Amino acid sequence: MRVILLGPPGVGKGTQAQFLMDELKAIQLSTGDLLRAEVRAATELGTKAKEFMDAGKLVPDDVILGMIGRKMQDLGDKAVIFDGFPRTVPQAEGLDKLMESLNMKVDKAIELTVDDEVVVKRLSSRRSCPQCGAVFNLLFAPPKQDDVCDKCGHVGLIQRDDDKEDTIRNRLKVYHDQTAPLSNYYNTQGKLVQVEGDGTIEEVRDRVLAVVK
Ligand code: AMP
């Protein structure tokens, strides 16, 4: 099964992707995570992408499609959860073409919906580990020990540059302008399911899993 997770930044796509991975024995393809790994490794792609990311803008479609294309080659018939991709209609069209060439298809697009103000509150309290990339939320999922990564023990959690309030508001605008039209794209294909994204992690998980069961 190939599932796309849609929804604004901070709605919890990454968190819910983990539950879907367990349920479907799937792997997760997060373009945000792939890009951050490129930035950490200071590759040419990462250096180019960082400028867009820090400004809360979308990285150009050709860069994203190239990156996903390379990943998809090695997937075989594994189930995949796409998280944070596609973000624009041209990316969705590119993914459909890529899938077709590999004899695959998108099965469902699950859209998590939530108010903008909930997103601002959630994202401005998000912190991550600069060493291993683990993500915490000071309000909802704090680290066990203040400022220490639960996963790798690194001391000093950081706020992503793109989780500062001005940038969050800009990312929301970009989302409404460029990504929200994807609901219509997948609705027309009969693949869209909308799920309320406000509530506890477990409440949202149960709603999401009900869609794929
Ligand atoms: P995310 O972690 O998914 O919120 O992504 C963080 C940032 O990476 C975004 O604000 C964009 O700058 C960039 N990014 C991630 N995925 C994409 C994508 N599919 N298309 C364009 N830019 C992306």
Q: Report the total helices.
A: 9
Secondary-structure content class: alpha/beta
The N- and C-terminal alpha carbons lie at a distance of 11 Å
What is the element string, with H for helices and E for strands? EHEHHHEHEHEEHHEH
Radius of gyration: 17 Å
Which percent bin holds the helix content?
40-55%
Looking at CATH, the homologous superfamily is P-loop containing nucleotide triphosphate hydrolases
When the domains are counted, the total is 1
Please give the structural blueprint.
Blueprint: E1 2-6, H1 13-24, E2 27-30, H2 31-40, H3 44-54, H4 61-73, E3 80-83, H5 89-101, E4 108-113, H6 116-124, E5 126-128, E6 135-137, H7 165-179, H8 181-188, E7 192-196, H9 201-212
Parallel strand pairs: 1-3, 1-4, 2-3, 4-7
Antiparallel strand pairs: 5-6
Helix pairs in contact: 1-9, 2-3, 4-5, 6-7
Written account of the structure:
The chain is built from nine helices and seven strands. 30% of the residues are buried. It has 213 residues and is of the alpha/beta class. It has a single domain (2-26, 79-212), classed as 3-Layer(aba) Sandwich (Rossmann fold). The radius of gyration is 17 Å and the shape is globular. The structure holds adenosine monophosphate (AMP). The site of adenosine monophosphate (AMP) has 18 residues, from α2 and α3.
